[in-house]
Amino acid sequence: FAELHAAVPGLPLASSRVLPGIVLRRDFAAYCPTDGELRALLVTEPLRPALTAPGVEFAVESEGQYQASLRWITKRTEALMKHLQINNVKLLLSSVKQEEVVIYYAKLYGVSVVECLSSEEMALISEVTGVSPYAPFGDNVNREITETAVVTFCQPLLLVSRRCVHIGFSSVCAFQPHCLILCGPVDGVNEQHAAALQEAFTMLQQLFKTVDQ
């Protein structure tokens, strides 16, 4: 329930509504508008490759060698983002903050980015779409990308002064997520309404479980 409702203080209760899909309470790090269905990728690690693996020392003998290494990282990052574009990936959903070079090439190749998703949000998206996070680096960076989710729409959503991300997913299960936009004059009233609604849903779950049995 926590991931499927958003409390918006400063508006009358009558402004509350139910929206299809999921509302992520953060703004796009990069937004590239697109029409129709698109492919989304879940990631849990930075897309800019590191100079070395964890626990391995990286030694350079000159400033030129170090700059060459940075150029290699930049080119590898660009190659990955271009590879996403070729595979029709138009949206990155990341549990970590991506570096500026990733955001730059995402905008260049028409890929929207949403960062810093919680583990609960990532788990919910995985449950709805049936996809697991993508591991970008390995022996073959250009391997075919199969871990993509179908997104029916992806757009900014303004809740009073807060910019959010509104996404519709093509669900692979019976569960079709909808998000409750719960409005009220102050936070305290919204919290009371949210608690009452959650208890009501819990009661309904118990009721239908008893009927099924």
TrEMBL record:
InterPro entries: BBS10 (IPR042619), GroEL-like_apical_dom_sf (IPR027409), TCP-1-like_intermed_sf (IPR027410). Coiled coil: none annotated. Signal peptide: none annotated. GO terms for biological process: chaperone-mediated protein complex assembly. It comes from the Eukaryota. Gene3D superfamilies: GroEL, TCP-1-like chaperonin intermediate domain. PANTHER family: BARDET-BIEDL SYNDROME 10 PROTEIN. This is BBS10 protein. The lineage of its organism: Eukaryota, Metazoa, Chordata, Craniata, Vertebrata.
